[in-house]
Amino acid sequence: MDVLPRGLFRPSAEARHRDRIPDKRLTDLRHENRPYVFPHYATRAQWLARAEELRRQVLVSAGLCPMPERPGLKPVVTRSLRRDDYVIENVCFETLPGFYVTGNLYRPAEVRGNIPGIANPHGHWKEGRFWDGFGNPIATRCIHFAKQGCAAFSYDMVGYGDRQAVSHQYRSLRGDLRGITLLGLQLWNSIRVLDYLASLPYVDPERLGCTGASGGGTQTFLLTAVDERVKVAAPVNMISAHMQGGCLCENAPNLRTDSFNVEFGACMAPRPLLLVSCTGDWTRNTPQVEYPAIRGIYELFGTGERVRCVQIEADHNYNRESREAVYAWFARWLLDRPEGEAAYRETPVQTERTEDLRVTPEGTALPGLADEVALEDAWTSRSEAQLASFFPKRRESGGQSIWNSGTQEGPSSFPDFLSSRLQEVARFQDEFRLPFQQMLGLRVPLPQDLRAEVRGTVEGESGGVRYGLHKLLLGEKDRGEAIPTLRLAPLASGGGVPVVMAHGDGKRAWARGEDGGAVWERVAAWLREGREGFFVDPWLTGEYHDPARRVGRAEDLKFFTTYNRADAALRAQDLVTACVYARGVMGAPGVDLWARGDAGLWALLARPFIPGLGRTLIEGRGYALEDDNYILERCYAPGLRRLGGFRTAAILAAPAPLRVAGLDGAFGAFLRRLYGMMGAEKDLTLGLSS
């Protein structure tokens, strides 16, 4: 039997240079200062479906999907300052072990009945919540809210104000994998701030609001997008179609890969929203661009009166004119006082010294304050406990669960036991399928949405089998992808299940090595059976590189993974696309997948989302799928470990037949438990033996 013909996979250098892969993903890069256009949503149902995607995208990006448990808070008031008609309380509470929210609660001195509660996140002014200078005096704003009959809580961003051991420049690659980011930490704190305000005996939990400027504006619209307890919002000088935020705390991985801030802001609909902008920053176009787009969403609900735009002639700020517009807006919707801005002019107030607003005296630390390593450990422990909670340990299985460590398999011969385990798996799959898909940014296209550009066709014969070889570029219509693919089809009528093949070193690697002949022998057998083979170069492998240089993206762009998918995610996408095409073009009931080397990692991620997936064969060596450093080096995908990593990918695809070689012992034991407890032992093979 002939070995795989080398010319099958390796065009000449001249041809490679001439036919450089025209994949739009190489050059069409998203970034924070790129102008974006708000999509058209024709119906309320269309928008509601999109809004649900956006909310999930924010939560997945922030590492908060599924939402962690929110145990009762134990707020501590370290000092209380009483003034004529309002009170200031210095407050702290833990949101993670050793990780605190610190802030000041401003409330009326005499509270009659239930009153609104307003969260006041601050922006990047140097002194944070203590700033009382030009443009954004936070204490002045909160005092006036209290005088108007509200409870206003101003609180620190990470690394600001009362001392935190976690820097405002915090970022780690391990954190990326585990879903631990500045944005996520601050969003979690803001959610807990709402919990705190709602827990106060004199606050009406149905009348909560949020307002902040600049980075505080980002915190405002992200909180309102994911937490419907916010009934009124006023993000100030932030929502823009051409500037998305310039700090790490506004740019978590995967956040804006297919969206932007105006869409997030529109998630407030139909709740009352005031867009405050100014003429001297990136919100200068709000009355003409961002406001009409968001108002269009409100009109779908028939609530156009619930959104308003105010523009102040000033530089970047939260100045007096801006604050007075916000006071009137909040009074209208939270206090049922529609008097207008003239009734809410500011009056001179005496603000406090910084040292009197601190939760702890300067130079002292809160008890058990966590540093960045301890914070990562606490976040990771919480996430792992949440994942394991879907699979409780059971006496019938010797105290084992699908998720926990150990090698014992569940006794699938017990019908009641098997039924309960299948229910656990089904519940996990329902909870994690969409978040996992959104974390990777995977689309599952329909066959009719794909196109295949034919770049050449030849016929040949090997081992008595005549075949046609078609050189293709695959991709979704109008998306600009160009996935190099060789379609190997028998000239005689086919009809069998196609096989998609991917190698971590590109498709030409199938012809290398001692088993090149064995590979071709297997492919030739498929051809005799009427099956087709599709040799694929996933993203940035094989034909993407010409002989003179390796191509890639300009990943030095600021906040690159906030706006662009990681390489591993794009490679998983290409396998999904190729499998949909192969199955569709043959009209086959299913499709098989064969992956080698690092392509095995991408195949494991893609498997849950391949329609009609049949058998999967993965051949590798030294797959350390539970090791953060290994994943960072070989298959970096932000948020992957937060959502359970390759274990979750396996559960989402189970019990589809799987043969895999090269796993470490722990992951292999997990697969045995999973397939054993699902009664599908016969569908799993570890190693290449029969």
Automatic annotation (TrEMBL):
- InterPro entries attached to this UniProt entry: AB_hydrolase_fold, AXE1_dom, FrsA_esterase
Q: Which residues form the Acetyl xylan esterase domain?
A: 90-235
One Pfam annotation, family name? AXE1
What protein am I looking at? Acetyl xylan esterase domain-containing protein
